[in-house]
From TrEMBL:
This is Twin-arginine translocation signal domain-containing protein. Keywords: Cell inner membrane, Cell membrane, Membrane, Signal, Transport. Pfam families: NMT1_2. SUPFAM superfamilies: Periplasmic binding protein-like II. One of its GO terms (cellular component) is endomembrane system. Its main location: membrane. It comes from Tritonibacter litoralis. Belongs to the CmpA/NrtA family. The lineage of its organism: Bacteria, Pseudomonadati, Pseudomonadota, Alphaproteobacteria, Rhodobacterales. It is found in: Endomembrane system.
Amino acid sequence: MTHFKDPFNPNIDVWNECGEASGEPADPYAGLTAEDAELLTRRAKQSLNPEVGMTRTLESAVMQGLFKTDVSRRAFLKSAGVTGALAAVATVFPLSSLQLMAEEAIKNLEKTKLTLGFVPITCATPIIGGHALGFYERYGLDVDIVKTAGWAVSRDKCLNGEYDGSHLLFPMPMAMSLGLGSTAQPWKVVSNVNTNGQAIVLANQHIDNQDPKNWKGFKFGVPFEYSMHNLLLRNYVADAGLDPDRDIQIRVVPPPEMVANLRAGNVDGYLAPDPFCQRAVYDQVGFIHKLTLDLWKQHPCCVFGLSEKFISENPNTTIALTTSILEATAAAETSSGRVAFAESMAPANYLNQPVEILKQILTGVFPDGQGNIKNVPDRISFMPLPTQTMGTWVLAQLRRWNYIDDDTNYATLAEDLVLTTTTREHMRTMMIADQNLSFADAEQDVYAPVDIQGQTFDPAAAQDFIDSQPFTHS
């Protein structure tokens, strides 16, 4: 069993003195007496209750006021023991009064009426289904989700404050923070709302031309310049010997317009999100050439993003909102959840798609437009932890294709922009509080090298990786 940031645990860094990506103990209860370990375990199980969670926050503030640093706090706890420390601190500040303060605070979340943006694609399943199935309401939030036609509009509405938070493409909070394509405004990747879930689709006329080496002169659509779609497509054709900036054309096409452009012959294909990959098959205008999970298993795609300003000004609302989206993400990953979410998202105010198509996508049983019925359960997955490897790869690719002007320390920048540690702590706390809740990705190595198209990407050697790749324009 893991831990949350309990200020009475002598084995953990509560105040993040080592930074966002600081290391964590393998056993947070090592060296403690059985009584103290049991006490801390019980406190951890209670922590997801919003009022109890608020109490822990106030306890942390009291402890920081008393001891100033983690070093001093830990020394005191190891000397007095957890049980003794609770009693000793209570003589200075009655901790029972914190519960009353917490109860009052939880009734006064900084903001309860929220507006979130979404682009109508299945990547947004936790955000859309979370609204349709009542996940936000469980945490006292009145959330309005607004369908947005494309990513440039979504970005602009985020930057001008029309949206409190939004469904975004993984590279977008980074681009927004760095001022790529817009004015700079600090935004954070809070959680993945999906992994996998994309495909390369080609027009039917190319059924006998599926070797990317032969695609010189092709016109491809991607949903946004700062997207995993653009970066994965560039990587795919570059590995086949084509320069994506010279040998093919890459055009930005809003997702809802993808199928129409394929039908009209404006593009030869696209790397895009569903439902518009499966919709091309359904409408008999295209076929699935390759699922992107075959390029990079469990690659990131879309995220839930919040501005640094919102997180700072609304810490309690941020916790409630993140909890509701993480809970919806976990539900979407289950077999029964996939069917329920598909049915809930079909109406016009959400995805406006036949339920049949959405079930094909979410269950992974689908026709590929080439005469085959495929069974790929993880065609789309819902693994919410945004890893540092993901963030570093995205930043490195933005540099590779000269969206970022200068070499930088990609790993350090990713640690600032991707809230890996905070979100993992939140996921762990939720699993402790609810034994029926599971996040399969919670304990993965967030700095692990990954295989992408048969090559190993090591985030610790991102610049070397860029320099070794064909057609690098940095």
